[in-house]
Amino acid sequence: MAEAHQAVGFVPSLTSDGAAVALRGPVLQDIYLSGLRSWRRHLSRLWNDLLSGVLPASPLSWLFLFSAIQLACFLQLDPSLGLMEKIKELLPDCGGQHHRIRGLVAAALFALCLWGALIFTLHVALRLLLSYHGWLLEPHGTMSSATKTWLALVRIFSGRRPMLFSYQRALPRQPVPSVQDTVRKYLESVRPVLSDEDFNWTAGLAQEFLKLQAPLLQWYLRLKSWWAANYVSDWWEEFVYLRSRNPLMVNSNYYLMDFLYVTPTPLQAARAGNAIHALLLYRHQLKRQEISPTLLMGMRPLCSAQYERIFNTTRVPGLQKGETHSLSPQWDIHRQHCGSTGGSSGARLLGLKPFCWLDKSFTLIIFSNAKLGLSVEHSWADCPISGHMWEFTLATECFQLGYSADGHCKGHPEPALPQPQRLHWDLPDQMRQSISLALRGAKTLSGNIDCHVFPFSHFGKSFIKHCCLSSDSFIQMALQLACFRDRGQFCLTYESAMTRLFLEGRTETVRSCTREACNFVRAMADKEKTNLCLGAWTPCTCSPSQPYEILWKDLGLLDSPGTHLVLPWCVPRGKCLRFLGLSPGPVTAGVQDPQCLALFRAAVDKHQALLKAALSGQGVDRHLFALYIVSQFLDMQSPFLAQVYSEQWQLSTSQIPVQQMHLFDVHNYPDYVSSGGGFGPADDHGYGVSYIFMGDDAITFHISSKKSSTKTDSHRLGQHIEEALLDVASLFQAGQHLQRRFRGSGDEDSGHRHGFRSSKTVQSKTPSASEPIP
């Protein structure tokens, strides 16, 4: 989500004196340390593997194997072909009376070795299976025989009930793309936003890079990909997040919001109690690995490593990574001197008005009107992980725990527990001054953000599926159209995609502003300017053409007699229009719609290809990022890489996935839908746009920009997004009535269109705890 800002902001930190000295050490040493950290994590997860059943078998399977060997020995059979006798000979001889015990130990050791060999074989087989990405390239809604066979084998080798971390040892490592392919894709992505002169200059730098620096840099990356768990993720976390000196607020942290339309209780303390209870229930399930692993498209498991750091994680500023006035490492010193009176140290974790640090893994915020919010620190994980926890929290605290008729938490208070106490902070004067400065800076940052949140309720995912299109690609192309109408030009666009198909994968960038998208947007702009007048026509004696009559009705292009008529390309100009029932006179026809539709489909197909490439580890930006990091280690100057990281993302976008729809009953409780979340803009003159599909018939958008910019306006872009979505929908038969309804509504529902309706507190409609969880 917010990594677009950090992705372009990390370069100054690398060129500062402190960071530059740290990076000019031996690159092999850093690669060695990366691998060492990977192997340590690998060993530390051994206990998790035992708990999760040592995929795809369990410790009980060893007991079954040992029992089978004992049964074979009882039947005077030797399944070990003499190996157990060899093992028995190696065991110490403790006397004849222990002969039977030696036999049991030898059988147990043989069973353990055989069991381990089988587990290793199954792991290797599953890893090879999970390295197959052909299913990504198949058309949406279809599945080849090869993919069906692959899916069946994956399910067989996955065991019956895989737990959260069951797949970790079987996930393949993220591949290093070909540097030639990466440079080619990069040049293709920037062509729409560069002039001919600038593009030729950039292409020249790219060719020089391929000849001079690329081979050596690529060699180091391939070495790291074989030694470490992931060739880019640890560098991404360190240099994009942890070395950044920008304030976490707006620049890095992202937020998640409460239910869009309702608040289940008006009591702040009650909401806090249930929310914390729900979070602890989630933590309990996480500790026991009872959370099901996420499967992409219901088939392919994703990496679960980021779940390990949801709780008990904080970002600690250090003194060795540079200094900046906006986020000073004095903070770490002040924290050590910060104490409180009137409560135990453990009580500092909870409070309705906490002394809040934004470097925690997440900060739960309970407002005075009992609305919930979540501020998430970005370095430890990405939005799908915290979003999964947030979905569980909202559903559990509302539907399972519930509230009584007076708004309080259900249940009875425990009399033995001490009463809550207000914490009184004992702060030194230096600390108070630093807090005042930080508060002033935070107010300045937040006051400069123009945040606009609005639900789009004209259609949603069901309509897009009816058009046989990808919902994400549909939105991305509409965003390109809206942004062009807002700015009058195309801009570099950042869309976040995940790489969790691979071990410890995080994110990749989809560059949504493609040549195909620009062609579609230009065609839509031409359509708005150009109309073709067919001239006056007079009745004739020719009979109407039945196929054309059916075509008109199927496309739904007619409003009423006497109005303007939109003719598709397939109807010849000059064709008799008598059968349409129009009186003689001028007929005006826009001639761009079929062309726009064809260009739109081409743009969607291109976006899908880029998205699938990103998912399969063949994206552009993370590879270029890793190449740049190696060049800094080697003190190797590359004008091409410097040019890459001088670019600004004026449109940063991200979709918030809904992963647990079974937790919410959108039919019986349609108002209980999460409004998603958002992040700050990546550029001072840019936009940050996130969106979430709420059920099947609504989409919520979060738009952010800076008030200090004269080029942006979040509400203005929101209006452009709404109009663009309806204009794109009107290219399809099913969407014709949506645009007419919207145009005819005027300003009657402008309050609903330009902002979400005011939140209401609801107790009577809140499901009781006795009802089944939706």
TrEMBL record:
Residues 741-774 are annotated as: Disordered. It is found in: Membrane. PROSITE patterns: ACYLTRANSF_C_1. Residues 758-774 have a biased composition (Polar residues). The active site is at H378 (proton acceptor). The keyword Calcium does not apply. Keywords: Acyltransferase, Fatty acid metabolism, Lipid metabolism, Membrane, Transferase, Transmembrane, Transmembrane helix. Residues 175-322, 357-531, 592-723 form the Choline/carnitine acyltransferase domain. The chain crosses the membrane at residues 104-126. Residues 1-47 form the Carnitine O-palmitoyltransferase N-terminal domain. This is Carnitine O-palmitoyltransferase 1, brain isoform. It comes from Octodon degus.
